Amino acid sequence: MCSEKKESSNFGLLDIVKQCDNFPYPEETVEIQKFNTTPLILNDTKIGLLLPSVIQALRSYNEKHESPSPFVIKEDLVTFSPHVNTFEKRTKAIEQLLNSWRTEKTFSALKGWRDELYPVYGDPSGPSNMAFVIERAATPLFGVLTFGVHLTGFVKTKGHYRIWVAKRSKTKPTWPGYLDNTVAGGIPYNLSITESIIKEAMEEANLPREIAKDSVPAGAITYFTVTERGLQPEAQYIYDLELPIDVVPKPFDDEVECFYLWDISKVIDHIKAGEFKPNCALDFLIRHSIITPDKEPAYLDILYRLHRRHEFPGPSFQS
Q1: pLDDT per position as a tens digit, 125-184
Q2: Are 254 and 166 in contact (CB under 8 A)?
Q3: Which of 43, 101, 93, 87 shows the shortest CA–CA distance to 70?
Q4: Nudix hydrolase domain: which residues (predicted)?
Q5: Do 306 and 223 form a contact (C-beta atoms < 8 A)?
Q6: Angstrom distance (rounded) from CA 312 to CA 49
Q7: What is the distance, to the nearest Å, from the Cα of residue 236 to the centroid of all Cα atoms in its chain?
């Protein structure tokens, strides 16, 4: 087990949520204008947002590939050139662009290269509405909507919850050393939501399939985060898993340092101390009536911030 560090409470719960949902809302016109974003468009559908630094790098790349250029860059939008008109061609164009940027060290975000492909949606003719796939580390550069899974493993005795809390490895490219849900990870290309949960449960917590398959879907949270790497709108599918008292999550890969089994009051103390990744834990406490509207003045604002309506398309699964 890890050593603990006890800190005094510094943050309100709404302050925590605002750290992960910190991109301006449509009515915050002045704040939005500060970002000066340009939409990435495919067939009249907005599928991402580009910052000025990315636009500049795209222009430079286009100038080196003029026969013909892979992108059309206008004052008010960016799209793919007419010849880049299929899922496969768009994926190849993005792959070549990112390989060039990575070689030239154009963006620090690409230092966290994962060799994981994430789907970007917005083409009804593509598989499950996919427009192309992109390296995970590059998603903030394009401001595309990404999808992940959060699993809270818990023990319940005599009506009282205790939660298995993961401590992220200090070598993680994002939020190193922070506390996290029991299991969390992205949904890669060609994996279903359920398979992603089972995969992450084994890789991060050494939980076998026969246990992880009993995870119960409990909704989703959505938010839009701005970081030094770029723009990251996200949707996380939420799962709960009640674990037997004799089942102990254990680190399996290098992404988790250790696990704690904490009662709710201790979890809340560490949340308020700012030790949790901001998109974690609160949704479980709300869904299980631990955070209630009578006790939390910012209850509705917290819910709004955890359920942001995104303007980008998502998957279209065939029944």
Answers
A1: 888 899 999 999 999 999 999 999 999 999 999 889 999 999 999 998 889 999 999 999
A2: no
A3: 93
A4: 144-286
A5: yes
A6: 10
A7: 7
Cα–Cα distance measured from residue 197 to residue 218, given in angstroms and rounded to the nearest whole number: 13
* d(C-alpha 215, C-alpha 213), whole Å: 5
117 near 133, Cβ under 8 Å?
yes
Residue 6 has pLDDT above 80, yes or no: no
> For the chain, which residues make up each domain, given as ranges?
13-22+146-306, 29-142
Give me the pLDDT at residue 319, please.
Answer: 38
* CA–CA separation, 312 and 309 (whole Å): 9
| DSSP SS3 for 256 | strand
pLDDT at 3: 53
The CATH number fitting domain 13-22+146-306, selected from 3.30.70.3270, 3.30.70.640, 3.90.79.10, 1.20.120.1200:
3.90.79.10
As a whole number, mean pLDDT of residues 227-255 equals 95
Predicted pLDDT of residue 154 = 98
Q: Where are the alpha helices (DSSP H) in 105-154?
A: 139-142
| CA separation for the pair 18, 195 (Å, rounded) | 30
Fold of the domain spanning 29-142: Transcription Regulator spoIIAA (3.30.750)
316 in Cβ contact with 295 (< 8 Å): no
Cβ burial, residue 117 (10 Å; 0-12/13-18/19+):
middle
pLDDT at 107 over 50: yes
Q: Which whole number is the average pLDDT over 49-69?
A: 94
Q: Say if CB 145 and CB 156 are below 8 A apart.
A: no
Buried b (16+ CB within 10 A) or exposed e, 50-59: bbeebeebbe
- Above 80 in pLDDT, residue 211? yes
Residue 8 confidence (pLDDT) above 70: no
Query: Which structure tokens are listed for 156?
Result: 């319940």
Q: What is the DSSP string of 61-106?
A: HHHH--SS-SEEE-SS-EEE-TT--SHHHHHHHHHHHHHHHHHHT-
